[in-house]
Amino acid sequence: MCLYDDPFVQYNSNANSPSIQNVGFMGEFKLVPNDDPFDDDSPNFERTSSQARDTLGQICTYATAHAAAQFLTHAFSFLVFPQYARLLMWDRAGVVVTEKDEVNISHHSLCSFLTDGSFIP
């Protein structure tokens, strides 16, 4: 999911889709907690299953494309699972990730989740 800064987004003429140059905030939704690349209870904080590595590769690719297209020093994204979410801050050195913020997305509007700051520890 991409949220744009400008309501009048310029489209990429080759792909007939919005350009990544206008993205303000990115997020990824996963249905299975095993896809979470992070483990709050692990000393390394990183999960090593193939599903977790796939998700980490996916969100790293998105963050790299976002930062490269806009020449950013840092960017924010979110990772949402059915029972919890995480906020991520990417920079040239890597990523800073919050612990799980337990929230039931089906009972909590996504708009409120993204705007009220409840996911910030």
Topology:
Layout: E1 2-4, E2 11-12, E3 17-18, E4 23-29, H1 50-70, E5 74-80, E6 84-91, E7 94-97, E8 101-102, H2 110-115
The biggest beta sheet is recorded as: 6 strands, mixed
Number of helices: 2
- Measure the end-to-end span: 23 Å
CA gyration radius, whole angstroms: 15 Å
Task: Give the beta-strand count.
Answer: 8
Q: Mean pLDDT, rounded to whole units?
A: 79
Task: Describe this protein's structure.
The protein has 121 residues and is of the alpha+beta class. 22% of the residues lie in helices and 29% in strands. Strands 1, 4, 5, 6, 7 and 8 form a six-stranded mixed beta sheet that branches. Strands 2-3 form a two-stranded antiparallel ribbon. The longest helix has 21 residues, at 50-70.
Question: What keyword list fits this structure?
Answer:
single chain; 121 residues; alpha+beta; 6-stranded mixed sheet; 22% helix
Quick summary:
22% of the residues lie in helices and 29% in strands. The chain is an alpha+beta fold.
